[in-house]
């Protein structure tokens, strides 16, 4: 037993050292922002483990990739982390309504801002249900569904109707332990014992709204992402380097460009100066009526 324990510890230590050497880091290498995130609000919904260092690392990667706006994390699992959170259907839908209420409040409090939602694993189910619970006219800008534990044929039409831009769904055939074996045994977050969308990708079910599904962008695993520390497993998308290089640009894509804002400010400044100069010139010249009276 001691020999086995020593060998296992040595193997784990070796794996950690290899990972530390091979996995790149972005810490301290923040990308110069290309978009204005001053009015952006990002909400992250973690998986059934609740908020962990993985979530905080991914969010750090987003900031290193250029996102500088407000970030909130909503841990919907409460005291029921783990499988208990996965199967608590009624409680999860109640939590989704609370999330929806938070989104509505942000939408009304900051009408000229942007709302971005990132979710992981079973948290993607809470994300989708929260979007479904939004009233008509309340929209979010961009959604990231990472390693979704929803079933592949779940109808996303209602949720997508509240997305102004795109919803990106990342999936990987390597995610077999959690999103194949795990969901076939315990079920997906929507209660089906099947392989999940984070393994296979989402498919549009019969009767779903094709117009809304045009907003859904499937992002299959790319082996090139291994250089970013993402090996395609269940937590690959949560690696900070992947967040900085791949996820952050997607979130920033539909936000106002900084150079556009600078150009607009320059145009407004030039227009204001021209108007002021015209007004000053007019003040120094006699009006037609005054000139006529003097004659």
Question: What topology emerges from the helices and strands here?
Answer:
Elements: H1 2-22, E1 40-45, H2 53-64, E2 70-73, H3 83-87, H4 89-109, E3 114-120, H5 123-132, E4 142-146, H6 157-160, E5 167-171, H7 176-186, H8 197-200, H9 210-213, E6 216-220, H10 240-252, H11 258-284, H12 288-294
Parallel strand pairs: 1-2, 1-3, 3-4, 4-5, 5-6
Helix pairs in contact: 2-10, 4-5
Summarize the biggest pleated sheet. Answer: 6 strands, parallel
Overall pLDDT score: 84
Please mark out the parts with pLDDT under 50 across 5 or more consecutive residues, or reply none: 1-23, 259-271, 287-295
Number of helices: 12
Rg, please?
Answer: 25 Å
Helix/strand class: alpha/beta
Main attributes of the structure:
single chain, 295 residues, alpha/beta, 11% strand, disordered C terminus
Walk me through this protein's architecture.
With 295 residues, the protein is α/β, with parallel strands linked by helices. The chain has one domain: Alpha/Beta hydrolase fold, catalytic domain (Rossmann fold), CATH 3.40.50.1820. The protein is 47% helix and 11% strand. A 6-stranded parallel sheet has the order 2-1-3-4-5-6, sandwiched between helices. The model is unreliable at 1-23, 259-271 and 287-295 (pLDDT under 50).
């Amino acid at each position: 037993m001691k020999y086995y324990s020593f060998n296992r510890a040595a193997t784990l230590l070796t794996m950690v050292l290899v990972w530390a050497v091979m996995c790149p880091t972005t810490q301290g290498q923040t990308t110069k922002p290309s978009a204005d995130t001053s009015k952006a609000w990002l909400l992250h919904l973690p998986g059934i483990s609740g908020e962990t260092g993985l979530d905080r690392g991914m969010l750090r990667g987003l900031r290193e990739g250029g996102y500088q706006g407000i970030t909130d994390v909503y841990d919907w699992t409460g005291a029921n982390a783990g499988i208990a959170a996965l199967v608590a259907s009624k409680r999860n839908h109640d939590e989704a309504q609370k999330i929806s209420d938070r989104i509505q409040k942000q939408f009304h409090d900051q009408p000229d801002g942007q709302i971005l939602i990132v979710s992981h694993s079973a948290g993607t189910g809470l994300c989708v249900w929260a979007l479904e619970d939004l009233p008509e006219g309340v929209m979010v800008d961009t959604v990231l569904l990472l390693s979704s534990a929803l079933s592949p044929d779940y109808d996303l039409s209602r949720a997508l109707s509240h997305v102004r831009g795109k919803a990106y769904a990342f999936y990987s055939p390597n995610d077999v332990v959690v999103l194949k074996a795990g969901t076939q045994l315990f079920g997906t977050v929507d209660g089906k014992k099947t392989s999940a969308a984070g393994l296979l990708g989402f498919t549009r079910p019969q009767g779903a709204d094709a117009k809304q599904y045009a907003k859904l962008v499937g992002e299959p695993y790319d082996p090139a992402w291994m250089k970013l520390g993402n090996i395609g497993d269940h937590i690959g998308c949560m690696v900070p380097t992947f967040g900085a290089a791949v996820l952050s640009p997607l979130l920033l894509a539909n936000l106002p460009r900084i150079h556009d804002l600078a150009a607009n400010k320059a145009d407004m400044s030039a227009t204001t100066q021209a108007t002021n100069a015209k007004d000053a010139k007019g003040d120094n010249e006699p009006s037609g009526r005054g000139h006529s009276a003097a004659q």
